[in-house]
Amino acid sequence: MEITYKQITPDTPSLIDLFNHSDYFPIKEKHDTKRIAKMFEKANLVISAWHNETLVGISRSLTDFCYCCYLSDLAVRDDYKRKGIGKKLVELTKEKAGDQCKLILQSSPGAMEFYTSIGMDRIDSAFIIQREI
């Protein structure tokens, strides 16, 4: 199976289909297509993974390309997991952000083991103000 990686933002229906077929959905309101579209429109580093015409993975980040890169969303279609796609998306994100950038993310509880397994260090020096919606 050949997976193709592209630095493009897929259309919103493809993104929602991917999220619906993964264990990750970035927002509570799954039918808020305008918000999903805006999230990806405003991101400045998006890498997508494709199997033929099917979107099978996505990495969405915000970065200055010289100091830090916040990897906000990482999702892989359930039936494509354990094939190295998530790891490759993280690697490509770091590569595109550049050597001067540190890569930062907030993990969902179920993904903690994945991030340590691909060599990321866990930190405890972060803070958050949760969104209201």
Automatic annotation (TrEMBL):
Keyword Acyltransferase: yes
UniProt xrefs under Gene3D superfamilies: 3.40.630.30
Ranges of residues in domain N-acetyltransferase: 3-133
Pfam families according to UniProt: Acetyltransf_10
Enzyme Commission designation: 2.3.1.-
Keywords per UniProt: Acyltransferase, Transferase
InterPro entries given in the database record: Acetyltransferase_Butenolide, Acyl_CoA_acyltransferase, GNAT_dom
Molecular-function annotations in GO: acyltransferase activity, transferring groups other than amino-acyl groups
CDD domains: NAT_SF
Transcription is among the record's keywords: no
Top-rank taxon, per record: Bacteria
Protein known as: GNAT family N-acetyltransferase
Taxonomic lineage of the native organism: Bacteria, Pseudomonadati, Bacteroidota, Cytophagia, Cytophagales
